[in-house]
Amino acid sequence: MSPPDALRQPIELDLFEGPFDLLLTLVLRDEVELLEVPLLEVVTASLGERARERWDTDTAGELIVLLAAMAELKARRLLGEPGEEEPDADTLEARERLAARLVAYAPFQRAAGWLGERARDCAGPRYRRVALAGAAPPPPPAEDAVRLREAMLPLIAAPPAPSLSHLTSRRVSLPAALARLQSALARARSVSFDALTAGLEPLEEAIALMAALELARRGDVTLTQPEPFGDIAITGSGR
Amino acid sequence: MSELARQVEALLFLSPEPLPLVTLCEIVEESPGAVQRALAELGERHGPEAGLEVAEIAGGFALRTRADLAPVVDRLRDRPSEDRVSPAALETLAVVAYLEPISRPQISRLRGVSVDSTVVSLLDRGLLEEAGRPPDGGAMRYRTTRLFQERFGLRKAGDLPPLENFELTGPEAERVRRHLVEAGHLPEGEGPADDE
Description:
Chain A is mainly alpha-helical and 239 residues long. Chain A has nine helices and three strands. Chain A is 52% helix and 5% strand. A three-stranded antiparallel sheet of chain A has the order 1-3-2. In chain B, α1 crosses α3.
């Protein structure tokens, strides 16, 4: 069976959506008169205004290269440039790729033509589409009201208030931490931060650090930390 | 008409969708051979002079009205005549039919044009359906439906001519290539087709 050829059917430009179906049809019908091809429409159809939402970067890039090849071909036709010079390798490659895409797409375009004929041939018969009604679902078993009430009660009872007993609130105080640090400094000229905060919770440790920073800001102490994450020596400035 | 043929006729009449041979065999509790003979008998009974015909379509058998009666039976049906499938929709259907399951980006890539709206309308019309996502994640894939098979007169899924039948012949492919590769570099009026 030789497939009916969609490419022999009349073209109506409006019906074409993309560069490939249009260009392929024109080329195969020896009508690759690019002067007649509405490039803008083709580009708009392919890339469109919302191209970024519709294409991944690779595909969009590939399409742009192909469309650029078409645009360049058309430009050369318009200018009527004589063909002595050889095009550069990139240009030739882009055109070869455009041609390869067209050849790869052609079978689907022809298959679409075949489908179109099938649709016309098979448009006549009508099918019965009435769904068969099955038996109605059985009615729910009769229950007495008391049992229904019993079943319903647990569902509508208010849920117990959640217990907060496992949550404790910890109060920390910056003045207290300051006082603690100052009294430690009264006893010794230099205090180790690690020693000062040994056994404390992270939050208390953080407050102790804030206290040290506060004293450093006031100029009461200097802080030295030889290595990152290492111990901090808090040294009173002796004022 | 044999008893079995009568049973098969009744089943085809009532069924809302084409009945596969196995289903028929299960219902009437007969062998496939016997059911096929009954179907053939039924086919003879519903010859061209009858209003109905037995058709093997969309993976099963159906009793449907004959094509020439469409104008009459459509007066009964409260619907416009079958809406046309646009060329863009046909090409999208062709791509899906041969490559299913296939995702929208894959179709777009092949067609060189966004197919989002086309796919949505084909889904709405029941000609395409979702076919799940690939196991490794990724875009939803689509396939053609049984309605597609009915609409295009296909006996079962994949009842299509081999795609190779539609490929360009060597000379045609070469013509496309030469037109595009050389077109920009020839003086006006000296088309590449001339030197064939």
